[in-house]
Amino acid sequence: MSNPDAERTFIAVKPDGVQRGLISNILSRFEQRGFKLVGIKLVTPTENLLKQHYAEHVEKSFFPKMLSYMMSGPILATVWEGKDVVKQGRAILGATNPLNSAPGTIRGDLAIDMGRNVVHGSDSVESAEREINLWFKKEELIDWKLNQLAWIYE
Ligand code: IDP
């Protein structure tokens, strides 16, 4: 069995996903795939946190609207662990623009507009590490053994 604890990703349910009651639908996709939840909390992010999180977009024209969308209510912040979880997480989410997302993905099933695309997921192992450190304190990440491991990994 390879080491499934080796990789982590940051997945967030954005305010529209929380308001629309989509939390359990979204989390169940990661749980049922076999990934392990190691951190979870509701957060109302500050402007400062979002500017750090979306540092690459701060100068973009859509940023002010995106900022008010992301600050419009609580976000469910989660951290998942498992083999190739960053890339697999992005595949579970679908494309940034829901209109380009395949059915079966979260955005392809549950969203239409880019500015209401329901979820965030880290796009690389490096950004995952940065985002996890930004949203979570070390002690908020729980080290536990998934007893089903041998049924998920060979
Ligand atoms: P990602 O969320 O799939 O990683 P990014 O390109 O990092 O996509 O963009 C971050 C978020 O910014 C998107 O999820 C989307 O909500 C928003 N966004 C990106 N581009 C646009 C745009 O052109 N118009 C409106 N919102 C956008």
From TrEMBL:
It comes from the Eukaryota. InterPro entries: NDK-like_dom (IPR034907), NDK-like_dom_sf (IPR036850), Nucleoside_diP_kinase (IPR001564), Nucleoside_diP_kinase_AS (IPR023005). GO terms for biological process: CTP biosynthetic process; GTP biosynthetic process; UTP biosynthetic process. Its cofactor is Mg(2+). One of its GO terms (molecular function) is nucleoside diphosphate kinase activity. Residues 6-143 form the Nucleoside diphosphate kinase-like domain. Its EC number is 2.7.4.6. The active site is at residue 120. CDD domains: NDPk_I. It catalyses: a 2'-deoxyribonucleoside 5'-diphosphate + ATP = a 2'-deoxyribonucleoside 5'-triphosphate + ADP. It is an enzyme of class 2 (transferase). Keywords: ATP-binding, Kinase, Nucleotide-binding, Transferase. Pfam families: NDK. Coiled coil: none annotated. ATP binds at residues 14, 62, 90, 96, 107, 117. Belongs to the NDK family. This is Nucleoside diphosphate kinase. It comes from Zygotorulaspora mrakii (Zygosaccharomyces mrakii).
